[in-house]
Design a protein that fits this description.
elongated; 25 helices; mainly alpha; 488 residues; single chain
């Protein structure tokens, strides 16, 4: 009703109409309504900013070529020398375009590059604005998604952050932070180092009402906290803080996303005994985290990955494989970040574990393709995936009975320790111990399992420690008896 009154007063003014549409889109996206994207695009059409509905791939190629030519040799200094945009219609147009970027990531990813190219073009043509840092960060993210060298994509990410500081535009801080520390920098910095900047972006998004980007920052904070190997109680406190900060907003997608991570951490801590926190159900109910009708690709893929990861850690490889099979769209949804490589690692572990039970060609092909993807990713940036690559190499070599898988296990353990990723360090030790058990080398096996138990305890996962004790009854025995089992 309020929006109807607002639009009624906008007749005859395109600027007022764009601003009213901006408010309407923010209202729709808070409800996770796909109509938010169409509403924004319709308003832009009235401002002569049209986007194609067909042949998006061709338009993307053409748009990228033109944008790359415009951005060539445009460093921070030259961008700051651009005159400020004073035209009210252009400012309103850029603000609405900027809002549609995270929305397109959820509801129409093919449109994302075209939005980026349009924002860059308008900024370079008309001058600098509050949307410029977002445009530069998004352009760097697009380059990363298209597979360009990380040095080039990181340059634009750093430029965007400098522009953000110089222009002091708090309205776009959440967006710039999400695109840089939630995207490009996840490949060149430790995940734990990305959490604090993302927290600042999240706080800014909550303060300014930028819920799409606040939600994105919250999701990446949860991911980075969990996958960086922080103690589980710390992760739980982080998720609780995010939930409290977002509780005054009624967005179901935000709270459902938070519950996914909360349920996963609760299970790892032993607070909950429900190991299945991803559900593909036809309708939304209070006890269901994800629904196939919710049309939220990003949240859906996030839920599958966290379920896959926890299932691998707790050796529920049948469930892990079921999740692996559902992750076909993950790579396209998170291209340009480190997450597709993390996904490839756990999918590969699930496939190799299933190969021990069945010589299915599908398992073998999945394991091989995941290993190939990790090798490719490691050449570009091995910051957060080196230990994952070595562990997958070890498992594949052991499964195929190749020579010397031990060296890969040892490298995986060494690099996981250096990275400080406690749960994956423990996982590497556990897998190495399992390898020794299969070869009847019980002394070496228990040495690794004992180390895994210590690390899982450090991580804070009581149920995982109990699982190891149940699976390996001699775990609590002294080393002296383990060395001389015939005397027992």
């Amino acid at each position: 009703k309020c929006l109807a009154i607002l639009f009624d007063h906008c007749k005859g003014s395109i600027v007022d109409y764009l601003n009213a549409s901006y408010i309407q889109v923010r209202s729709l996206v808070a409800q996770n309504d796909p109509a938010s994207l169409d509403t924004g695009l319709e308003a832009l059409r009235l401002a002569d900013e049209n986007f194609p509905s067909r042949d998006l791939a061709m338009h993307t190629i053409v748009g990228f070529a033109k944008t790359r030519r415009l951005m060539k040799s445009k460093g921070t200094r030259k961008l700051l020398q651009l005159p400020p945009i004073t035209d009210r219609q252009m400012i309103a147009t850029l603000r609405l375009l900027d809002l549609l970027v995270p929305i397109s990531l959820t509801f129409n990813q093919q449109l994302l590059p075209l939005l980026c190219f349009r924002i860059v073009k308008l900024n370079l043509t008309h001058g600098i604005s509050k949307a410029t840092p977002s445009a530069v960060a998004l352009y760097g993210m697009i380059l990363s998604r298209f597979g360009y060298p990380l040095t080039e994509t990181a340059k634009y990410a750093e430029t965007a952050l400098v522009l953000q500081r110089e222009l002091k535009c708090n309205d776009t801080l959440a967006n710039v932070t999400l695109l840089t520390y939630g995207g490009t920098f996840t490949r060149i910095q430790k995940l734990s180092d990305c959490i604090e900047p993302l927290q600042s972006g999240f706080n800014s998004g909550i303060k300014t009402g930028d819920m799409p980007n606040a939600r994105g920052c919250a999701a990446v904070i949860s991911w980075c906290s969990f996958f960086s190997g922080q103690r589980l109680t710390t992760v739980a406190n982080t998720i609780k803080h995010l939930r409290t900060s977002m509780s005054e907003f009624s967005s179901k997608s935000i709270m459902h996303g938070n519950r996914i991570y909360q349920n996963a951490v609760d299970y790892c801590l032993g607070v909950s005994k429900d190991s299945r926190f991803y559900y593909n159900m036809p309708t939304v109910r209070d006890d269901v985290i994800i629904s196939s009708k919710r049309n939220d690709l990003v949240l859906d893929e996030q839920a599958k990955l966290i379920q896959l990861t926890v299932s691998c850690i707790f050796c529920d490889y049948e469930l892990a494989w079921a999740m692996s099979e559902k992750l076909g769209l993950f790579g396209s949804a998170f291209a340009g970040t480190t997450w597709p490589y993390t996904c490839a690692f756990y999918r590969g572990m699930a496939a190799i574990s299933m190969l021990h039970w069945s010589s299915s060609r599908q398992y073998a092909q999945t394991a091989k393709s995941c290993l190939k993807e990790l090798r490719k990713g490691h050449k570009k940036s091995g910051k957060n995936i080196t230990h994952q690559l070595y562990l997958l190499e070890a498992e594949y070599a052991a499964c195929k009975k190749f020579a010397f898988p031990e060296k890969f296990y040892l490298l995986a353990i060494e690099h996981a320790a250096l990275s400080g990723v406690t749960h994956e360090h423990a996982y590497a030790c556990e897998r190495f111990g399992t390898y020794h058990f299969l070869r009847k080398n019980h002394n070496a096996a228990y040495e690794q399992i004992r180390e895994a138990h210590t690390l899982y305890s450090k991580w804070g996962s009581k149920p995982k420690c109990e699982q190891l004790k149940k699976k390996y009854p001699r775990l609590g025995e002294s080393e002296r008896f383990l060395r001389y089992p015939h005397k027992m």
